[in-house]
Design brief:
Blueprint lengths: L1 H29 L3 E2 L10 E5 L3 E2 L2 E2 L1 H15 L5 E5 L6 H11 L7 E4 L5 H10 L5 E7 L3 H10 L3 E7 L7 H21 L11 H8 L3
Parallel strand pairs: 1-8, 2-5, 2-7, 5-6, 7-8
Antiparallel strand pairs: 3-4
Helix pairs in contact: 1-5, 1-6, 4-5
Protein backbone atom coordinates (compact mmCIF):
# COMPACT_ATOMS: atom_id res chain seq x y z
CA UNK A 1 0.00 0.00 0.00
CA UNK A 2 2.82 2.38 0.86
CA UNK A 3 4.40 1.82 -2.56
CA UNK A 4 1.07 2.58 -4.20
CA UNK A 5 0.75 5.86 -2.33
CA UNK A 6 4.31 6.79 -3.27
CA UNK A 7 3.58 6.06 -6.92
CA UNK A 8 0.40 8.12 -6.81
CA UNK A 9 2.26 10.99 -5.13
CA UNK A 10 4.99 10.82 -7.75
CA UNK A 11 2.40 10.94 -10.53
CA UNK A 12 0.71 13.90 -8.85
CA UNK A 13 3.99 15.78 -8.56
CA UNK A 14 4.82 15.06 -12.20
CA UNK A 15 1.38 16.30 -13.24
CA UNK A 16 1.79 19.46 -11.20
CA UNK A 17 5.18 20.06 -12.79
CA UNK A 18 3.90 19.51 -16.31
CA UNK A 19 0.96 21.86 -15.83
CA UNK A 20 2.36 24.26 -13.26
CA UNK A 21 5.79 24.72 -14.83
CA UNK A 22 4.56 26.30 -18.07
CA UNK A 23 1.97 28.34 -16.14
CA UNK A 24 4.71 29.74 -13.90
CA UNK A 25 6.99 30.58 -16.83
CA UNK A 26 4.22 32.34 -18.71
CA UNK A 27 3.06 34.43 -15.78
CA UNK A 28 6.63 35.35 -14.88
CA UNK A 29 7.19 36.63 -18.42
CA UNK A 30 3.86 38.46 -18.52
CA UNK A 31 3.87 40.05 -15.06
CA UNK A 32 3.55 43.82 -15.23
CA UNK A 33 2.92 43.65 -18.99
CA UNK A 34 -0.83 43.01 -19.22
CA UNK A 35 -3.86 45.24 -18.69
CA UNK A 36 -7.63 45.03 -18.95
CA UNK A 37 -8.19 48.70 -19.76
CA UNK A 38 -6.99 50.56 -22.82
CA UNK A 39 -6.43 53.68 -20.75
CA UNK A 40 -3.54 52.06 -18.89
CA UNK A 41 -1.62 50.60 -21.83
CA UNK A 42 1.73 52.13 -22.85
CA UNK A 43 2.10 53.28 -26.43
CA UNK A 44 3.42 50.89 -29.05
CA UNK A 45 3.49 51.56 -32.77
CA UNK A 46 2.07 48.14 -33.69
CA UNK A 47 -0.98 46.37 -32.30
CA UNK A 48 -1.51 42.69 -33.06
CA UNK A 49 -5.15 41.65 -32.85
CA UNK A 50 -5.49 37.92 -32.28
CA UNK A 51 -8.08 36.08 -34.34
CA UNK A 52 -11.23 34.39 -33.10
CA UNK A 53 -14.33 32.89 -34.67
CA UNK A 54 -16.40 34.66 -37.29
CA UNK A 55 -20.12 34.30 -37.90
CA UNK A 56 -21.50 34.70 -41.43
CA UNK A 57 -18.61 36.91 -42.45
CA UNK A 58 -18.81 39.10 -39.36
CA UNK A 59 -16.81 39.05 -36.11
CA UNK A 60 -18.14 36.87 -33.31
CA UNK A 61 -18.82 38.58 -29.99
CA UNK A 62 -15.36 37.82 -28.66
CA UNK A 63 -13.64 38.91 -31.85
CA UNK A 64 -15.61 42.14 -32.05
CA UNK A 65 -14.64 42.91 -28.45
CA UNK A 66 -10.97 42.47 -29.40
CA UNK A 67 -11.36 44.72 -32.41
CA UNK A 68 -13.24 47.38 -30.45
CA UNK A 69 -10.48 47.38 -27.86
CA UNK A 70 -7.88 47.75 -30.61
CA UNK A 71 -9.87 50.64 -32.08
CA UNK A 72 -9.92 52.33 -28.69
CA UNK A 73 -6.13 52.06 -28.49
CA UNK A 74 -5.86 53.46 -32.01
CA UNK A 75 -8.22 56.36 -31.33
CA UNK A 76 -6.21 57.23 -28.22
CA UNK A 77 -2.93 57.16 -30.15
CA UNK A 78 -1.58 54.09 -28.37
CA UNK A 79 -1.15 52.06 -31.55
CA UNK A 80 -0.80 53.19 -35.16
CA UNK A 81 -0.57 50.06 -37.32
CA UNK A 82 -2.59 46.85 -37.00
CA UNK A 83 -1.56 43.28 -37.64
CA UNK A 84 -4.69 41.14 -37.85
CA UNK A 85 -3.71 37.53 -37.43
CA UNK A 86 -5.77 34.37 -37.41
CA UNK A 87 -6.99 31.33 -39.25
CA UNK A 88 -8.04 31.58 -42.89
CA UNK A 89 -10.46 28.72 -42.32
CA UNK A 90 -13.24 31.20 -41.60
CA UNK A 91 -11.50 34.24 -43.13
CA UNK A 92 -10.57 35.74 -39.77
CA UNK A 93 -7.93 38.23 -41.05
CA UNK A 94 -10.20 39.47 -43.87
CA UNK A 95 -13.18 39.86 -41.53
CA UNK A 96 -11.02 41.74 -39.05
CA UNK A 97 -9.69 44.03 -41.77
CA UNK A 98 -13.20 44.81 -43.00
CA UNK A 99 -14.38 45.68 -39.50
CA UNK A 100 -11.46 48.02 -38.87
CA UNK A 101 -11.92 49.73 -42.22
CA UNK A 102 -15.63 50.19 -41.48
CA UNK A 103 -14.58 52.07 -38.35
CA UNK A 104 -12.26 54.47 -40.11
CA UNK A 105 -8.86 52.79 -40.17
CA UNK A 106 -6.85 53.45 -43.32
CA UNK A 107 -6.46 50.17 -45.27
CA UNK A 108 -2.74 50.89 -45.59
CA UNK A 109 -2.42 50.72 -41.81
CA UNK A 110 -3.85 47.19 -41.60
CA UNK A 111 -1.64 44.19 -42.36
CA UNK A 112 -3.16 40.72 -42.68
CA UNK A 113 -1.24 37.71 -41.40
CA UNK A 114 -2.94 34.70 -42.92
CA UNK A 115 -0.66 32.18 -41.23
CA UNK A 116 -1.49 32.96 -37.63
CA UNK A 117 -3.03 29.62 -36.77
CA UNK A 118 -1.77 29.77 -33.19
CA UNK A 119 -0.44 32.39 -30.80
CA UNK A 120 3.02 30.93 -31.33
CA UNK A 121 2.86 31.22 -35.12
CA UNK A 122 1.48 34.76 -34.90
CA UNK A 123 4.36 35.89 -32.71
CA UNK A 124 7.03 34.19 -34.80
CA UNK A 125 5.61 35.59 -38.02
CA UNK A 126 5.36 39.10 -36.56
CA UNK A 127 9.09 38.91 -35.86
CA UNK A 128 10.40 36.96 -38.83
CA UNK A 129 8.10 38.06 -41.64
CA UNK A 130 6.98 41.57 -40.69
CA UNK A 131 10.14 42.62 -38.85
CA UNK A 132 8.36 43.73 -35.68
CA UNK A 133 10.49 44.02 -32.54
CA UNK A 134 7.80 45.31 -30.17
CA UNK A 135 4.01 45.36 -30.16
CA UNK A 136 0.81 45.34 -28.16
CA UNK A 137 -1.21 42.12 -28.16
CA UNK A 138 -5.00 42.54 -28.12
CA UNK A 139 -7.25 39.62 -27.15
CA UNK A 140 -9.40 38.43 -24.23
CA UNK A 141 -7.77 38.72 -20.81
CA UNK A 142 -7.45 34.95 -20.28
CA UNK A 143 -5.43 34.68 -23.50
CA UNK A 144 -3.13 37.70 -23.19
CA UNK A 145 -0.50 36.37 -20.71
CA UNK A 146 0.31 33.37 -22.90
CA UNK A 147 0.56 35.46 -26.04
CA UNK A 148 2.74 38.11 -24.39
CA UNK A 149 5.01 35.39 -23.01
CA UNK A 150 5.16 33.63 -26.36
CA UNK A 151 6.15 36.78 -28.19
CA UNK A 152 8.84 37.53 -25.62
CA UNK A 153 10.23 34.00 -25.93
CA UNK A 154 10.65 34.40 -29.71
CA UNK A 155 12.24 37.84 -29.50
CA UNK A 156 9.35 40.33 -29.61
CA UNK A 157 9.07 42.88 -26.79
CA UNK A 158 5.36 42.46 -26.16
CA UNK A 159 2.78 43.93 -23.84
CA UNK A 160 -0.91 43.11 -23.94
CA UNK A 161 -4.43 44.22 -23.17
CA UNK A 162 -7.35 41.87 -22.76
CA UNK A 163 -11.07 42.51 -22.98
CA UNK A 164 -13.34 41.44 -20.15
CA UNK A 165 -16.52 43.24 -21.19
CA UNK A 166 -17.90 40.38 -23.27
CA UNK A 167 -18.23 37.06 -21.47
CA UNK A 168 -20.42 34.00 -21.95
CA UNK A 169 -20.82 30.63 -20.29
CA UNK A 170 -17.75 29.32 -22.12
CA UNK A 171 -15.37 31.80 -20.47
CA UNK A 172 -14.42 29.36 -17.71
CA UNK A 173 -13.71 26.58 -20.17
CA UNK A 174 -11.47 28.92 -22.17
CA UNK A 175 -9.54 29.75 -19.00
CA UNK A 176 -9.06 26.05 -18.25
CA UNK A 177 -8.05 25.37 -21.84
CA UNK A 178 -5.17 27.77 -21.38
CA UNK A 179 -3.48 25.21 -19.11
CA UNK A 180 -3.11 22.79 -22.03
CA UNK A 181 -2.27 25.62 -24.43
CA UNK A 182 0.54 26.70 -22.10
CA UNK A 183 2.15 23.28 -22.38
CA UNK A 184 1.85 23.26 -26.16
CA UNK A 185 3.36 26.74 -26.41
CA UNK A 186 6.44 25.72 -24.43
CA UNK A 187 6.81 22.70 -26.70
CA UNK A 188 6.45 24.84 -29.84
CA UNK A 189 9.10 27.28 -28.63
CA UNK A 190 11.54 24.54 -27.63
CA UNK A 191 11.28 22.55 -30.86
CA UNK A 192 10.73 25.63 -33.07
CA UNK A 193 7.55 24.32 -34.63
CA UNK A 194 7.17 25.19 -38.31
CA UNK A 195 5.02 28.27 -38.96
CA UNK A 196 4.96 28.13 -42.72
CA UNK A 197 7.19 29.75 -45.28
CA UNK A 198 9.26 32.62 -43.89
CA UNK A 199 9.66 35.57 -46.25
CA UNK A 200 10.12 39.32 -45.97
CA UNK A 201 6.90 41.33 -45.99
CA UNK A 202 7.58 45.08 -45.70
CA UNK A 203 3.93 46.05 -45.17
CA UNK A 204 4.24 46.91 -41.49
CA UNK A 205 7.47 48.82 -41.92
CA UNK A 206 6.06 50.72 -44.92
CA UNK A 207 2.98 51.70 -42.92
CA UNK A 208 5.10 52.91 -40.03
CA UNK A 209 7.36 54.90 -42.38
CA UNK A 210 4.37 56.50 -44.04
CA UNK A 211 3.15 57.58 -40.60
CA UNK A 212 6.57 58.91 -39.69
CA UNK A 213 7.19 56.22 -37.05
Amino acid sequence: MRKLWRALLALLLIGLLIVGGPWAVIHALAIGRTWTSADQVPTRDVGMVMGAATVNGRPSGYLQARLDLALQLWEQGQISVFIVTGSTGDDEPAVMRNYLEEHGVDPLDIVEDEGGNSSYSSCVRAKEIFGVDELTVISQSYHVPRTVATCRMVGVNAIGVGDETVKNDAWGSYERRELAANIKMIYDVLVKTDVGTIYDDPSVQEALARLGK
